[in-house]
């Protein structure tokens, strides 16, 4: 349900999203859950609980209240605790030695088959089966429904020896198997009552993402015949570890951080997080903190970029050690078209599982069905709740302006609902009964037709699959630049996130709405939530060939081999990142841009984090003033290049330093190929890199020069590629202007 809300909220009523609203049910109204983050684990871990307790006693001034206020001690992979605090206690703690940050725990939101074929990974793809079965993909999500055919463990051996995680019990959970080897839940903020805690997925989102990343082959999977094909994940032989951190009210920071703490210590290889919220300082963002520690331990974290597009500067989860994923379309679209009684045909986009029982139905609209004694504030044209007369809609197809009218019409006994959308109709949403979404202009045609006759009629057809040009970035996918570090190009990459068929949970229905009785094994969903596990699966696939590659190397391989997106040229890389993933090519990238923890640290220093905070995050003494060299825009060896200029008048002049590591052929020569952004000059020195052995590193310098950007442009886009004829190692170069966000 959360995923659908997310997409609907962001697509149709952006302002409803309120990330600050606490969903936390506390018996003490004033105390609120806070996270006290203390960075790296100290050498001596035994006394962590005591340290946390003592800090709390000092801040609160009362041992008993301190004990009752503590929610959780983090301490398997990093140091910190969660507690219910009053604002002044939080302030007092934040001033203490050894504490990086103290921040309110907030609620974050949750943000196929064909999709893997579309990415060039056919069912017969060459796999490193043995290594793949040792890969563990962790998902921080709504849990998992293990009985799904996508998690059938026939042919799987016992979990890899490195696995230290566990399988919890509760509710209707039937236990783990050799496919889903771990299932834990985190309910530290009491999002649900203790008797409601369970690792089982009652939402569908977690089952969908887990099966997209690593589900096994399931033939003839479909949603009532829609999108039929063989469902599978990116790494069908890999293992799944599920960490349930999202409940019906959302995903709490305290739980997300606890799940990272556990997953890193449990021995997982890749972490997939389809959760997002408003962006905040890296030291106060549990996903940035958790993924930093994961990265230090060699674990890549892949995150959804957010569903707040097409607006600029909405990208979430943008820390440079995270792989941030935009959602793209695949080469099919779901049409649920309309035919009117006068023969007019109207194109509709929806997941409508219902075939019309009797052809034409009488047609009306919300305005003509208004209940004049009903809800005074309701908008009848939009079919708002309480605004319509039962007798006017019963047995009819109703045209409602805007989204969401279908539940109201359905509850009043309507035969079906036609809804309109101002946004790009690139995403098909499930309707609760017969229904579809059309453009606003086509909606006016329907109104006109209704006005023109006393016997208006219409039929809405069941969804059929239509080929479509692809990939394009989905309209809802969040756009860059990142507000926190604008010179790092974010999102990083795109992957399919529109109309994705994957496994679903038996404990919910297609829409999750009241009155929906369709329990399904596979469902169609859209969101950057769906794109994220595609990249997690692809990263796991790369890791099965290169088990020792660093998280940054895996990320670089996926980015530099991705395919630039061409369909909506105006959107450029601020929508798509480097391009659409191409997992097969990413196994052989030739060169990688590697980044170690040290570089992330100097990046943090440059971002203005204080030495003491940086030291605590890294666990080593660090002096930010020691960074003297200017190493690129943000001091990072990033596989893409982004320069943000201050205004249209500024002359463009910037130097970027990069180092590539040879992971291709020992003796090889790479020549640079530059496509300069229009009107700019790009000089790369040296422009030939000669390697004599594997793992050899070579550095180069990129100089970007030009007159100011013209006023009518807000970005310029180009690229730089290293090529040895076998490999093409491509990095986008983007220069962008500030926009008025
Ligand atoms: C188990 O599932 C059934 C059917 O969906 C539901 O009615 C019941 O409340 C669930 N039990 C628990 C403990 O969650
Ligand atoms: C109109 O609205 C009123 C007040 O909500 C309600 O009692 C009544 O049943 C509605 N009429 C019809 C025909 O649905
Ligand atoms: C009713 O809702 C529609 C669709 O959201 C909107 O276009 C229209 O302006 C609204 N009408 C009123 C009177 O608020
Ligand atoms: C349909 O008729 C209503 C009521 O007379 C009017 O307000 C509306 O503008 C008409 N719509 C169209 C598209 O002609
Ligand atoms: C910072 O640089 C100074 C002077 O070069 C050196 O003595 C010190 O060890 C450095 N500190 C750290 C934490 O790197
Ligand atoms: C950090 O380094 C600078 C310059 O190297 C030095 O002046 C300063 O004292 C150092 N600070 C700490 C806390 O070591």
Q: What does the model show?
A:
The active site is at 141 (charge relay system), 205 (charge relay system), 529 (charge relay system). Residues 1-25 form the signal peptide. Residues 636-735 form the Subtilisin-like protease fibronectin type-III domain. Keywords: Hydrolase, Protease, Serine protease, Signal. GO terms for molecular function: serine-type endopeptidase activity. The structure is a single chain. The chain is of the alpha/beta class and 741 residues long. It has 4 domains: 32-104, Peptidase S8 propeptide/proteinase inhibitor I9 (Alpha-Beta Plaits, 2-Layer Sandwich), CATH 3.30.70; 115-325 and 496-572, Rossmann fold (3-Layer(aba) Sandwich), CATH 3.40.50; 338-458, Glucose Oxidase, domain 1, CATH 3.50.30; 590-595 and 636-736, Immunoglobulin-like, CATH 2.60.40. It contains 18 helices and 37 strands. A 7-stranded parallel beta sheet has the order 7-10-6-13-15-16-26, sandwiched between helices. Strands 19-18-24-20-21-22-23 form a 7-stranded mixed beta sheet, with helices on both faces. Strand 20, helix 10 and strand 21 (397-400) form a beta-alpha-beta unit. The longest helix has 18 residues, at 528-545. It is globular. Mean pLDDT is 89; it is low at 1-28. One 2-acetamido-2-deoxy-beta-D-glucopyranose binds at residues 379, 381-382, 401-402.
């Amino acid at each position: 349900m959360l995923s659908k809300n997310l997409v609907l909220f962001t697509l149709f009523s952006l302002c409803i999203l309120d990330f600050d609203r606490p969903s936390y049910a506390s018996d003490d109204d004033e105390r609120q859950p806070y996270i006290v983050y203390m960075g790296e684990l100290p050498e001596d871990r035994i006394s962590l609980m005591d340290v946390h307790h003592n800090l709390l006693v000092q801040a609160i001034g009362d041992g008993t209240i301190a004990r009752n206020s503590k929610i959780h001690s983090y301490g398997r992979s990093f140091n910190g605790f969660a507690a219910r605090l009053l604002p002044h206690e939080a302030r007092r703690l934040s001033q203490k030695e050894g504490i990086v940050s103290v921040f309110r725990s907030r609620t974050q939101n949750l943000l196929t088959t064909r999709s893997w074929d579309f990415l060039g990974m056919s069912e017969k793809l060459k796999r490193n089966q043995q290594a793949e079965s040792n890969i563990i993909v962790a998902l921080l999500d709504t849990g998992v429904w293990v009985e799904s055919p996508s998690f059938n463990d026939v042919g799987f051996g016992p979990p890899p020896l490195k696995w230290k995680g566990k399988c919890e019990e509760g509710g209707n959970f039937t236990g783990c198997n050799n496919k889903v080897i771990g299932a834990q839940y985190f309910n530290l903020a009491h999002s649900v009552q203790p008797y409601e805690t369970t690792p089982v997925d009652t939402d569908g989102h977690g089952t969908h993402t887990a099966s997209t990343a690593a589900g096994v082959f399931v033939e003839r999977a479909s949603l009532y015949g829609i999108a039929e094909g063989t469902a599978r994940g990116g790494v069908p032989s890999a293992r799944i570890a599920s960490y349930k951190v999202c409940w019906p009210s959302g995903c709490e920071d305290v739980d997300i951080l606890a799940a990272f703490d556990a997953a890193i210590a449990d021995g997982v290889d890749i972490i997939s997080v389809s959760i997002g919220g408003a962006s905040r300082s890296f030291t106060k963002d549990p996903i940035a903190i958790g993924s930093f520690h994961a990265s230090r331990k060699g674990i890549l974290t892949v995150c959804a970029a957010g569903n707040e597009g097409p607006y600029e500067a909405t990208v979430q989860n943008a820390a440079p050690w995270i792989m941030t994923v935009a959602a793209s379309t695949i080469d099919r679209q779901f049409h649920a078209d309309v035919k009117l009684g006068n023969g007019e045909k109207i194109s509709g986009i929806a997941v409508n599982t219902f075939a019309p029982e009797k052809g034409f139905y009488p047609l009306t609209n919300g305005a003509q069905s208004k209940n004049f004694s009903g809800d005074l504030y309701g908008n009848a044209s939009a079919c708002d709740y309480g605004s319509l007369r039962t007798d006017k809609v019963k047995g009819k197809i109703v045209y409602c302006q805007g989204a969401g009218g279908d539940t109201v019409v359905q509850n009043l006994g309507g035969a079906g609902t036609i809804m309109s959308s101002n946004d790009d109709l690139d995403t098909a949403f499930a309707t609760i009964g017969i229904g579809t979404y059309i453009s606003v202009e086509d909606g006016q045609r329907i109104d006109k037709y209704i006005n023109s006759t006393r016997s208006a009629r219409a039929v809405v057809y069941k969804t059929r699959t239509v080929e479509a040009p692809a990939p394009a970035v989905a309209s809802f996918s969040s756009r860059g630049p990142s507000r926190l570090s604008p010179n790092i190009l974010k999102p990083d990459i795109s992957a399919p996130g529109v109309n994705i068929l994957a496994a679903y949970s038996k404990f919910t229905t297609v829409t999750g709405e009241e009155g929906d009785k369709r329990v399904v094994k596979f469902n169609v969903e859209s969101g950057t939530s769906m794109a994220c596990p595609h990249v997690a699966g692809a990263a796991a696939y790369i890791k099965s060939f290169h088990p020792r590659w660093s998280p940054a190397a895996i990320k670089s391989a996926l980015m530099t081999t991705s395919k630039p997106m061409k369909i909506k040229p105006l959107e450029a890389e601020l929508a798509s990142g480097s391009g659409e993933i191409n997992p097969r090519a990413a196994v052989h990238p030739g060169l990688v841009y590697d980044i170690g923890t040290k570089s992330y640290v100097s990046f943090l220093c440059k971002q203005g984090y204080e030495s003491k905070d940086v030291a605590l995050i890294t666990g080593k003494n660090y002096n930010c003033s020691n960074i003297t060299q200017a190493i690129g825009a943000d001091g990072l060896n990033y596989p893409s290049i982004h320069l943000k200029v201050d205004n249209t008048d500024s002359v463009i002049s910037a130097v970027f330093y990069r180092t590539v590591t040879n992971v291709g052929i020992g003796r090889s020569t790479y020549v640079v190929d530059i496509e300069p952004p229009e009107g700019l000059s790009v000089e790369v020195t040296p422009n030939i890199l000669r390697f004599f052995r594997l793992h050899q590193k070579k550095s180069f310098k990129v100089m970007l020069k030009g007159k100011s950007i013209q006023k009518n442009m807000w970005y310029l886009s180009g690229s730089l590629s290293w090529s040895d004829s076998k490999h093409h190692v491509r990095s986008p170069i983007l220069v962008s202007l500030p926009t008025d966000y």
